[in-house]
UniProtKB/TrEMBL annotation:
Topology in membrane: Peripheral membrane protein
Annotated source species: Halobacillus karajensis
Residue ranges of every copy of the Era-type G domain listed in the record: 6-173
Chain intervals for the UniProt region annotation (G3): 61-64
Subcellular location: Cytoplasm; Cell membrane
Annotated Pfam families: KH_2 (PF07650), MMR_HSR1 (PF01926)
An example molecular function term from Gene Ontology annotations: GTPase activity
Protein name as it appears in the record: GTPase Era
Residues covered by region (G4): 123-126
Regions crossing the membrane: none
Domain of life: Bacteria
Subunit annotation: Monomer.
Length: 298
């Protein structure tokens, strides 16, 4: 560790789908947070740890802040808001393709009560003409004072290193909180369940993505074929949804398993035998006890 080592916690907030999880995976250099084009993909607070010679930044990827419609939604918004006053900096991320909207107003009202430095991160600049950025910047500047405004593309990596340099400058001197090879505070079991849920999000539409939870029921060490054996249940809210997840002659479930297995194998660095099944738990998103069972507890 060098002298003047800097460290701190940085939370990423913003409307659903602006690219918070994509950004976090890019800076961590490995996939730990699942991503999709569906809002409310991220349900928990996920910490990603970035360590180099002179600094350690712990990024906190949060569920998008939105007006909640059920108990799971309440939980998700609380998670995002509770992090705001505990961190060294806040990244407020917006999508360059979209103008200022009601969703941002909802978030800005909350950010105004925060004392920590707030950076406006304009993501997805790969999607717009540079001329479009200035009016957008002016619009947001009127609403609130930002420490700095930084346009990036989380997907392509543009300007991400610049953002990291700026953050390092702002962070206080401090200890290395996590070992340098640790990239997340979540156990493998959680990341595995998320990889499975991500494939369901990618392969289904409408209400299904929001109705799904994944529970890992068993992980057994390598067998004689050197494979890790994982058993997981995909939980849905209705019988009709179960049918969709299973698909014709099991084809959908098979595809979910095939894609999830690839991600899990690269996470574990080992061959995996993944056993999946589907369970119905009526209205689980509104039942506190179920939310806790599925890992959505504060
Ligand atoms: P989150 O809900 O804010 O965590 O957003 P995600 O990280 O899940 O991303 C939402 C969608 O936006 C995904 O389809 C991403 O591939 C896409 N996305 C994220 N960052 C960028 C970017 O910089 N450029 C483009 N074109 N797409 C992006
Ligand atoms: K998303
Ligand atoms: Mg996300």
């Amino acid at each position: 560790m060098t002298e003047n080592f800097k460290s701190g916690f940085v939370t990423i907030v913003g409307r659903p789908n602006v690219g918070k999880s994509t950004f976090m995976n890019r800076v961590i250099g490995e996939k730990i947070a699942i991503m999709s084009d569906k809002p409310q993909t991220t349900r928990n607070k996920i910490q990603g740890v970035m360590t180099d010679k002179e600094s350690q930044i712990i990024f906190i990827d949060t569920p998008g802040i939105h007006k909640p419609k059920h108990k799971l939604g309440d939980f998700m918004v609380n998670v995002a808001e509770n992090t705001l006053n505990e961190v060294d900096a806040v990244l407020f991320m917006i999508n360059a393709e979209e103008g200022y909207g009601r969703g941002d107003q909802f978030i800005l009202e909350r950010l105004k009560r925060v004392d920590q430095p707030i950076f406006l991160i304009i993501n997805k600049i790969d999607q717009v003409h540079p001329d479009q950025l200035l009016p957008l910047i002016d619009q947001y500047k009127e609403k609130m004072e930002f420490e700095e405004i930084i346009p990036i593309s989380a997907l392509e990596g543009n300007n991400v290193n610049h953002l990291l340099d700026v953050l390092k400058k702002h962070l206080p001197e401090g200890p290395q909180f996590y070992p340098e090879d640790q990239i997340t505070d979540h156990p493998e079991r959680f990341v595995i369940s998320e990889f499975i849920r991500e494939k369901v999000l990618h392969l289904t539409r409408e209400e299904i993505p929001h109705s799904v939870a994944v529970v890992i029921e068993g992980i057994e060490p390598r067998d004689e074929h050197n494979k890790v054996h994982i058993q997981a249940a995909i939980v849905v809210e209705r019988k009709s949804q179960k049918g969709i997840i299973i698909g014709k002659q099991g084809s959908m479930l098979k595809e979910i398993g095939k894609r999830a297995r690839k991600d899990i194998e690269s996470l574990l660095g080992s061959k995996v035998y993944l056993e999946l099944w589907v369970k119905v738990q009526k209205d689980w998103r509104n039942k506190q006890i179920q939310l806790s069972d599925f890992g959505y507890r504060e």
